[in-house]
Structures are given as C-alpha cells and as structure tokens.
Amino acid sequence: MPLVNCWPSTIDADRHRARQRGAAGRAVTVAPPAATTTQIDRIRSALAKEVEAGGLTIGTKGDFIVVEINNLLLFQSGKADAKPEFQP
Fold first, then answer.
1. CA 74 to CA 50: how far, in whole Å?
2. Where is 72: in which H helix or E strand?
3. Which of 20, 34, 74, 77 has its Cβ near the most Cβ atoms within 10 Å?
4. Sign of torsion over alpha carbons 18, 22, 27, 29
C-alpha cells in the first residue's frame, strides 16, 4: 500500500504561517499550555499524610472521586455518631 502524503498544501502552509504572524508581520510567540493537575491529584496531595498513615484511601468509581475513611478514624468505639472533627 503506498504512503499518502498528508502534509498540507503550500497554500495551506502559507495561510497557516500568515495566521501565526502579528499585525506588523512579526512571528507571534505562543506560550505552551500551563501544566495542569487533576482534581484527584490535588486531593491526594492535600490528604497525603492521612493516606500515608493508612486512615484514608482515595480512588475513583466511574467519573466520581471516592475518599474512604477508615471507620476507626470516623467513629469512637461503640458509638454510631461520627466524631466531631468529621461533622460538617
């Protein structure tokens, strides 16, 4: 099967270069996109100490981020109500 040249035509390339030039005909410098962190990365970073200690796990289920809290951290022994530090 022969290779197909997918490079844009000379006219298209000239148009592309013209769009990249400013009004004065100088080349416009385009900064690369800023590095982005995902929401789950920010959550993992913020809770790294608790995850390291074994009290939390962070993961995903479908499109959702799930933070699981160990029940020994969340509840006092023999109690059904969450500890005050976990109350909204």
1. 13
2. helix 71-74
3. 74
4. negative
Burial of 73 (0-12, 13-18, 19+ CB in 10 A): middle
The pLDDT tens digits of the residues spanning 12-60 come to 556 656 666 655 566 667 777 777 889 999 999 999 998 999 889 999 9
Q: How far apart are CA 21 and CA 40, in angstroms?
A: 39
Among 47, 49, 71, 72, residue whose Cα is nearest residue 58: 47
Give residue 14's Cα distance to chain centre: 36
Q: State how far the alpha carbon of 21 is from the alpha carbons of 11, 18, 26, 74, in Å.
A: 16, 5, 5, 59
Separation between Cα atoms, residue 51 and residue 70, nearest integer Å: 10
